[in-house]
Amino acid sequence: MTHEQVKINVLYFAAAWTATGLSNELVPIPRNLRLSSLADLLVARHPKAAALRKILDGSKWSVDAEMVDDPEVVELKGGEEVAVICPVSGG
Question: Is 91 inside a domain boundary?
């Protein structure tokens, strides 16, 4: 039995882009991954990005261009576009 690996496209902006050095990446995910668990997966993929955990913990998420209020209730099934929306400081 073949298990097809599902992937999502993660978009990085601002500090997340700087930390990873990427503007986007295709990320293989386990089936039915909760959005609230995605940060752990991304931090594990980028062990040299020391600030990434802090950045992700302070960021919001959007899935398929819709902002997410509660990442715990969103299940990623594969094929989604997930954006890391970092806080913006103004002056």
Answer: no
How does pLDDT run along the chain (91 residues), one tens digit per residue?
Answer: 445 689 999 999 999 999 999 999 999 999 889 999 999 999 999 999 989 999 999 999 999 999 999 999 999 999 999 999 998 765 5
* C-beta separation of 29 from 41 below 8 A: yes
The reply to whether 32 falls in a domain is: yes
DSSP track, 42-69: HHHH-TT-TTHHHHHHT-EEEETTEEES
Q: What is the pTM of this model?
A: 0.90
Domain hosting residue 20, numbered range: 6-85
Q: Residue 35 sits in a domain of what CATH number?
A: 3.10.20.30
Task: Give burial (CB, 10 Å; 0-12/13-18/19+) of 79.
Answer: exposed
